[in-house]
Design a protein that fits this description.
Distance between the termini: 7 Å
CATH topology of the largest domain: Rossmann fold
CATH class of the largest domain: Alpha Beta
Order of helices and strands: EEEEHEHHEHEHEHEHEH
Largest sheet: 5 strands, parallel
Structural class: alpha/beta
Radius of gyration: 18 Å
Number of domains: 2
Shape: elongated
Low-confidence stretches: none
CATH architecture of the largest domain: 3-Layer(aba) Sandwich
Mean pLDDT: 93
């Protein structure tokens, strides 16, 4: 029998070897920002997620940029679906992986549109390298409380074999509202997400790479 897996990320996902129950714990809302940042000519535009691409598309034609970078294969593919050619994708789909491989000319101007709750590491370290970084908060994230309660009920009633978290925000959405859940089939993308989970007193299994497919591979290793 296929395992039932609660997938909590915003974007839908399917896998033929598991029964996916798509329960997005988060919803996104657009933020306002100073449009003057679009008047600058940038050497690099860095997309860290598909959501960032989706929210930035209506501004893309207004900005002058020489090169595009994407963090993650899915982000790259989504860019290309929108007609945006990507010049650089790191091998490791994380901020740390990006920083380990990314190089640009000295004092390069970099535009970084992302979530208001994105980890500051990428923008901070690029700035420390002498690049001129413009961070734009394109959208914010809110807990989808009705879905959070549904997921909680599924977990306590043992209606799922596993739950996945692709971000620290998703972890916080569930455990801020329901801190005590007797369920240990927890799977995460990335060490930062694991660290957030551990602060609530839980341990999750970390995927080998920063992809949803890698999380499913970890779940299937249990021999369902």
């Amino acid at each position: 029998m296929k395992p039932t897996v609660i997938m909590t990320q915003t974007l839908a996902y399917q896998h033929e070897q598991v029964n996916v129950c798509h329960m997005p714990l988060l919803s996104t809302v657009a933020c306002s920002f100073d449009p003057k940042v679009l008047e600058i000519e940038y050497d690099w535009l860095i997309f860290s997620s598909q959501n960032a691409v989706a929210y930035f598309m209506k501004y893309f034609g207004q900005v002058r940029v020489k090169h595009i970078a994407a963090i993650g294969k899915k982000t790259q593919e989504y860019c290309e679906e929108q007609g945006i050619a990507v010049d650089f994708v790191p091998d490791d789909f994380s901020q740390e992986g990006f920083l380990a491989q990314f190089e640009a000319d000295a004092h390069a101007a970099i535009l970084l549109p992302s979530s208001a709750q994105a980890r500051p590491k990428l923008a901070t370290e690029l700035g420390q390298r002498g690049y001129k970084v413009t961070k734009v908060d394109l959208y914010d994230i809110e807990a989808n409380e009705a879905v959070v309660d549904q997921v909680y009920a599924m977990l306590v009633n043992q209606q799922a074999d596993a739950i996945t978290f692709a971000s620290s925000s998703a972890v916080r959405a569930l455990y801020d509202r329901h801190p005590n859940i007797d369920f240990d089939g927890l799977y995460v993308i990335g060490v930062p997400t694991q660290k957030t989970l551990s602060r609530y007193g839980y341990q999750g299994i970390v995927a080998e790479s920063q992809t949803l497919d890698a999380m499913i591979d970890k779940i299937l290793e249990k021999g369902f």
